[in-house]
């Protein structure tokens, strides 16, 4: 489980009822750099600030000593693991009330932005149907409804699968069957999320994992796929990792008291959870368990992983009584992942020597006899692979971009050797995102998801025999969207050590001047080897169509440029992440994409750490910043092994119980480096039930900023009291969050027209 986030998630101001009352139509016409009346705008803001009581957290001295160094945290009391302390809840409510008041003058404009964003959505739609056995499976959204329906239709045709298949939808088509309606399940819950929806191999049962708090502790229900009736008892206190082991058993993972996935269990359908068999218990608190199913559905793989090492057990579904068997041994610094086809296991293996990974295969009856299929390459990172009965699709990264190559495989039973003659899938945009999707193992059809910053999310079926690619579904964007109106670019900033840092850029033609006067929003993450590839987000158009340039800084600590890119932005090299981001900002200013007065920045979770660090280092460089669920109390958190994720992340940030790491982490931890200086306009968000970043971290960050900063710029904190790391769960509620965030940025940049106030 990682501290990760996606761009632009902020906390909503309105309840679901109020959200649904807003009309889904465009109420304000976007224009490039609209000109407000600054004097009127400023006077309104000043008047509000004069009557608003800025929340001031009480100070309770709390000393922490390590290596003779004493740190004082006057706001340590804001941490309440029970989330019930009246003083804490009162303070969070005061912050929320203050945020609502300080944004009330632009509430009308926020509603307009929300209506504009929602107006781009085709509310009643279906996802690209996926063939699974004798059924098409898909999700349906309904007009005005927050959540999806999980549906299927029987496949009436006897023809073999083809990339040209289309699910019949007319009156003569087989009847649609709704397996599960999340809208019904969500009734009575402020938060509702399904983390797993797994259909049994025979298509008769469904197991789904449900979270109604946002704390990512799931309950799994098993239902009859035809009538929705419960089958057996439900399973409580588990992760979202659950897989079918044949048609009559489930394998799932539970967590310890610090929410570390530590035990894997076998559950026979119809039995009580108390009688489930524990297949493995990982006792090392730096390791966590994960679960994967082979595409062949013949094996399950239990992975025990730290941030640097991963080893694998396998379960033969036809021989469950044999329990778990070792596939790859635990070797420090060696990371493996696996799948199965025929009489071979296929393994992606990374080590210090082969840092960008190699792909090998071994016989089922001799897992030590490996054959190299794809060797390690310095400039190409093997990201993932997907197996089929006759093919393998390899997902790689080269020059900062994803790449998909398809290879034919010899018949099962024949000798397998190094893969050659692969066919590369072509993509049209200069910068883009591509991700694997579920496919049928027995077919020759590869499905993948593709998008770019100007191309809406698209599902493609690719014929691995012919190389023909067919678009199966592209997200509908209403409101006159035309991709040809937008430009995407890839630029490179140069760090002080000579490293070239890629930047992905989006803007609308004829709406920007590229003379330094345009507003720009720069997003960054840079942790966990996660790749923030340039993808599409329809809500972003509400900024870009107003003349904004949007950019992503692909900084070290992420995985965009290979394994070394990640290693050079973690542990004792973590500051490269922050200086890379500053370098990208300076590049954009120097090359006249924006100016300091028009530059806003955004990051979530570990990207929120990035925001906190660069705000302390270069507050003069930015006009506004949005830090979503930010990991900002790094040193205190990483010194406390009772906090979820701490022990498992010592290999990411360092173990501050060691003096070298203590002082290095202290030198950048945002809470520990706030000082008396001017800061830009800042919005900080949190979720009370967040298990990844405790709500108290952003709460303390804001409290200390209020105490120390020397400017009169806005500092707003919004804590969602009924959600977790990913904030509200409904699709329209999330749009409201985006509308609020964009309104904050536009207000900070004095870009809200007077007529909209």
Automatic annotation (TrEMBL):
Pfam families: Peptidase_S9, Peptidase_S9_N. Residues 1-34 form the signal peptide. Residues 55-472 form the Peptidase S9A N-terminal domain. The keyword ATP-binding does not apply. Keywords: Hydrolase, Protease, Serine protease, Signal. One of its GO terms (cellular component) is cytosol. InterPro entries: AB_hydrolase_fold, Pept_S9A_N, Peptidase_S9_cat, Peptidase_S9A, Serine_Peptidase_S9A. It is an enzyme of class 3 (hydrolase). Its EC number is 3.4.21.-. Residues 535-750 form the Peptidase S9 prolyl oligopeptidase catalytic domain. It catalyses: Hydrolysis of Pro-|-Xaa >> Ala-|-Xaa in oligopeptides. One of its GO terms (biological process) is proteolysis. PANTHER family: PROLYL ENDOPEPTIDASE-LIKE (PTHR11757:SF19), PROTEASE FAMILY S9A OLIGOPEPTIDASE (PTHR11757). Belongs to the peptidase S9A family. Serine peptidase whose precise substrate specificity remains unclear. Does not cleave peptides after a arginine or lysine residue. Regulates trans-Golgi network morphology and sorting by regulating the membrane binding of the AP-1 complex. May play a role in the regulation of synaptic vesicle exocytosis. This is Prolyl endopeptidase.
